[in-house]
Specification:
single chain, 177 residues, alpha+beta, Thiol Ester Dehydrase, Chain A, 3 helices, elongated, disordered N terminus
Length: 177
Amino acid sequence: MNFCASLPGGQVFLAKTLSAADSQLGFPKKVTNETSMKKVIFEETIYTYHIDFVGHVNNINYITWMENGRVKLLETAGIPVTEVASKEGILPILSETHICYKKPLFLQNRVTIEVWVSHIYNASMIMEFRFYNEERELCATAHQKGLFVDSNTMKPVRLKPEHREAFEKFLSSTKQP
């Protein structure tokens, strides 16, 4: 099952619930016992300003794409970052980023980015990222630890039950390949 969502500014991205049939369509093999799990999947085009002096995508761009994915995940979960900050006084911040580069991306490639949640804790969660080129070759894997803090004290706050429930739709207990 797929659905598209529009963001302010007209950007459209795909949130996809993966099933066993998706492996036949070229999506990564499912490694969990769950029958379905939702991911946020979107594409980015690589332009000249993404390229470093070596001739491939500069590694800082992966961080930018991860930020885009994190914002899209929050919006798809129904927890837009601006709303949760202004109405609830909760700031989603990052406390950790890890990237493993496997294959370079080049000028005018299109990169497909998949984002999902692998762990949910009391005041934080781990988001997983996969970056694929046009041939669906895995180019990088990554994860980020997101922490929720009170905007006044900057101390961690527990996830509200409704936030936890929203993130559980994107939860896979096992890292995807």
